[in-house]
């Protein structure tokens, strides 16, 4: 594996040098004022990126899985009913966690490759007239299938049903890369990590908590200590932590958040869509199809591609790594062996993306896939190139 | 706060440049073989440093607090009785966590500054003939008071009482710096983090689990998912993680562990004791006393110093930071305002330690403490210097 | 200009991270033994890479221009006659320097794009029966035109003429990347820098001196102090420098030299040729022609491409930088505006090279060049890809 | 040698982390606009630090020795007479260089430890009524002896004699650390490097050229190419270089210059004097004497200390390195074995300096010097500490 090639796994992303340096901080005293100078802007930036306008953000030294756990353990009690769809590896894992915590999960099984079935959720919520469902879980962007679900529509469904359930959203592979509006969509618990849209190493579990969710904390009877919102909120209010904080990563978050906000979130989303459009054009040119069935739900951060019948998708990933030193994502769970994935989130230039497309094209040709060398690259180039007149006019 | 001065907080420690570089890794695919090449030696090194010969080590992306939580939630059930002493801030916090998890904690309150009262524990264990106590908790090195407890004696007490309770030891500020023998002392759960003896940034919660403790996992009914040993042990066995691992920190751990083992653990302990002896000589020369009352329990990683009557110990810490750009530790909990702490664990040369002693000496003089400039430094120099003849003979 | 894209200028090259770290050294005492531990292997590695088996290597804190100056000022005297060809910007500049030093330069003007005219040199040397020519200057690889000259043939010509002139070779953009044999080819002064085949930042001027050239030093009457071989040789023999050495760069050289020798020089040359073959295949596919007229003289480190009639080659370079954040080389001197250059020396993976080819392809398309998107990439992919059967057999 | 200890050699200095990072730049195209964005502010900063208000600054990729050579080779012709004092190793070497360039050097030998004898220079200049002396050479701060000479007084002497000679000043170990006023003192050529007051690695030779000196360039007949001011001035005017520039170091210079100017040059000088005062207080407390005989000429960047009779000063340096991992400077030339030197220029906190003083104190004690442990530290602490009342009033 060459350390000179970009990675195209769907996170952790390539880390821009400026962020690597921000994280690589000499030790400072985390009980001193110098720490608050790092932490306060880091937390504010996370809040702004999540569009968590009236809520609170807590940042644990953990990963996205920890953020899921914190969301449920701080707001629910044993036996509580939650509604969730299983349509990818990450939605599956969250359901599994809920079951291990003794929650009563109403699972809607959906074909992997489809988004969360809003209509079915709407039906269930409307039928739940005594509001036994305490929380609705949604995976905004299923990293396993490259499918984005419609959270705004889910909020509309909740509102239409007049349902008070908490809306918990896994935004791990969307927040900071794709349109996400915690406040406007009425998301009560929004969950992400450091290693995706924020382009940092893993190690931060970031949770946005709505005012409504904050009101559930004291009633919640699931046990928690490390992940207790109350200790964190108390300490965060004083600019600190209840235990040793990961100062370097928080400095990275302050820096990353500032980068995203300086570029402008809308511009960041457009940039991700532009890069994704090139990848999708390449897939079309190869004559392959996406795991994501509906065009509207195609993810701008990760593209899962169906291998043609008779081909093992995993071989693409292993050959890319072994022969060309480049990392892509293999299929997981229900689609293991059937899809390979190109991650394209974080800081990626067009030339970087073209190197990824050109490489996976060589891999497929090596393996006898019925594709033409250069075809996908040319299609992506048509998306990425800017004829001089157009450029001059801009 | 100057970034050129060493820090003398009792962790996180100064990070040697080679370890900063080991942690500052570009993104690699954590599902590739390249990851196992990092993780397997990291885990082996942690195991060797803990002297966890026949047990298993798991490494969470979290902090020491998470390691405490994992230890209890994976081996105990609600209502289980545990025995613990409260004699410092960190033993206090672990007790608090147990209570929040619904455990029945038999607390022995001991004066802060004293070690764990082994005789009293022995009495209680002997009296517990029906073995209601399921676990005994011990803080090997109380970072708040600079006191080391005698874990070997505690094991002897357990054995003498023929008591089957699990022995859980917080080795956060001892493991990798002071003598610690998981196997020989029959420690069932040994807990540490990355930011102390391993000299890394915070972000790894490292737990050593004895074979006996492994046998308790399936019966344990406290809920856990992020901190579940079973997921970790399964994934670790395959060279990986159930979720995104902190690759850079693990690479740092592999490097740090190799450094410690190459130096030789015995040599590492002698080095820490030598540096600590200089600090203690300085305290004697100043005419001040230690928080640690018994000479045998004086910690080799942190020295807590009693301010003379009428002086606010916290002012020492804030003045050192504000005026001389150097970080020391303030008193916590029962000894807040009464002690200040000099951390001296990790990679510290004699000249670095002398700069710390010289600086805090200036601070005390500035604040009117009845000490003589140069006196503590001279005492430490007498410990550190090596008359040429002696050197020649060596 | 994105700092995430590789550069494709013909030096300085992309610097592998391990070399950036080797150069980024904290200050050490350059008069201590620690310095010799860095410098001695650095110098030995440079000697091995140059295949300077029986000569001496000196390393100045300067650039290639300084190495040229050292070569002439330490071996020649005012009025001495030297023979040189002008067939590119760098051969031109060396001639200019000789003239400024009062040497009598016999200049053979050759079309830019052609190699050094060995036959003409042979004629001149044979005719110079009284050996007035004291030195023959050759540019092994003309970075301005992407043309490699045949140094072995030049040595044969010198030998055939029985001519005692010193053979001075500018190997700045060949040594460490292309076959270079100082000893076997009878090169008396071989000149390179740190920022090409050694993949380091600029700042080292490296000169290989044959035993024969060493014998000329005391007679040479051109003035020199900073660049005096005698001071350097004396100090180098003691493991040091006559003035402050650039310790970090020398540490980088030790590391880089070891990398090249560990890979094997022959493998390094094959790797460069392989990458160059892909670039040349792309140029063919575009229907463009090279500045290098003779196939045998096509450089493996830089390719200079003729813009089609009516197109300004410089616009390719500026548009690549401004629109896609990628650096290529413009034409210099006689070929300014007529050629653009793709540098491909140093550490370049196939995916990196493909990103360069794909990008310059977009640039040409943007500017209305009659080329087809994807065509050059596909041609390079055919060179770089490895059908699985072949791979399996290997 | 521990890489955790500061160095106390009189240059290269400790490099602040922010400057190491500024120098460690990925490759950029030095022919692009991005380079000018680095170089132009770097050059402006150097000009401001030198107080070279109406002159020009050129920056070679070389060291201070190269800057000396450039100063004389660009302004003088063979046989020109220059006036210089030999009173230390660096003034000696500059004289040697002049002689090698065929200049006619009138050498005034002065005791090492004394400053440049202005009165004697004044006498010679006044007597030189036909102005055969073309240049006067002065070493502002003799790094070998820790002696600062009075350049303002030398200018007064030149003016009083109505003498038109160029005034060339070696400011290598003073510029950026001690008061230096190129314009006001009428310095025609001011010479420094990157590795002293600018706190960077070695590799830049920085020369300030007065308008008067610029007028001498075309008449100067000493040969030069690499060090030719004309090529540099032409290229610098266009924001570039006649050959490959050391981009990383220039980025470091831009950053370092900004740091110095933001702090304020006067504050930088006061800071150096304050640190030096602590060192001198320690020497007094040890009962040792300085190589610098006159209090007014004691250098604020390096202190050369006389070993007591019967002691070998070099052993101090080697023992400090071997036993305590700390670098100090040995005596050079006439004072080899008689003095050891403490460098204290660049970025040094009081605690860092105290670690140096404490360490050399241990070394001297080890070697049987008649000094008392802690005595020098206490003296320096009295200089560095700030009784709280005074601090409160400030």
Write the layout of secondary structure elements.
4 copies of one chain form a homotetramer.
Chain A: H1 17-23, H2 33-50, E1 56-60, H3 64-73, E2 81-86, H4 89-100, E3 104-109, H5 118-127, E4 133-139, E5 141-142, E6 147-148, H6 151-160, E7 166-170, E8 189-193, E9 205-209, H7 211-214, H8 229-237, H9 247-263, H10 265-286, E10 302-306, H11 313-324, E11 329-330, E12 339-343, H12 350-366, H13 375-384, H14 388-393
Parallel strand pairs in A: 2-3, 2-4, 4-7, 7-8
Antiparallel strand pairs in A: 1-9, 5-6, 8-9, 10-12, 11-12
Helix pairs in contact in A: 1-9, 2-9, 5-6, 9-10, 10-13, 11-12, 12-13
Descriptive notes:
Four copies of one chain form a homotetramer. In chain A, the strands form three sheets. In chain A, strands 1-9-8-7-4-2-3 form a seven-stranded mixed β-sheet, with helices on both faces. In chain A, strands 10-12-11 form a three-stranded antiparallel β-sheet, covered by helices on one side. Chain A has 14 helices and twelve strands. The model of chain A has no long low-confidence stretch (mean pLDDT 96). In chain A, helix 1 runs antiparallel to helix 9 and helix 9 (247-263) packs across helix 10. Chain A is of the alpha/beta class and 394 residues long. The first copy, chain A, folds into two domains: 17-262, Type I PLP-dependent aspartate aminotransferase-like (Major domain) (Aspartate Aminotransferase, domain 2, 3-Layer(aba) Sandwich), CATH 3.40.640; 265-393, Aspartate Aminotransferase, domain 1. Helix content of chain A is 42%, strand content 14%. The longest helix of chain A is centred in the last third of the chain and has 22 residues, at 265-286. Chains in contact: A-B, A-C, A-D, B-C, B-D, C-D. Chains A and B meet through helix 3, helix 9 and strand 11 of A and helix 3, helix 9 and strand 11 of B.
